[in-house]
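Running this now, will post back.
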Amino acid sequence: MLSGFPKPSAPKGKSSLLEVEPEHAKVARENISNAGLKKVVEVKVNPASRDFGADAERGNGSFDMVFIDADKDNNPGYFTAALAMSHVGTLIVVDNIARRGRLIDPNSTAGDVLGTRKLFEMMGKEKRVEATRRFRLLGSKGWDGYAMALVVE
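Update: finished.
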């Protein structure tokens, strides 16, 4: 251990992962276990739209950070549920929002494009958040982006 750095303590928080694909959940559980975080990360195999929305309706807990990387058609619903389970200071991040440039096609009726546009509209009107979006990330998918909203009230 490097001098001057404290010994890492046990994590104090909890994390939930909602995954629709059983094989992806299996890989996630293995990685979480290998990282020594099995006691603090819960992996559920269900559609996020069902579990996340139900948790929000029941008032189950409050999140410090929400990372949404699910079916883009339902981004507005995920954002609504995330906001319902947030407090001042919660960061909500939505991944893969560029939709390969299809957002600017005024004739697009694709569900993922319409869902992302609705998300932007909701973020822009929502008085409880300060939001921004970032495009032009380069990676294995080419270019993409993400949106962030900080809950401020």
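The chain has a mean pLDDT of 81. More later if anyone needs it.
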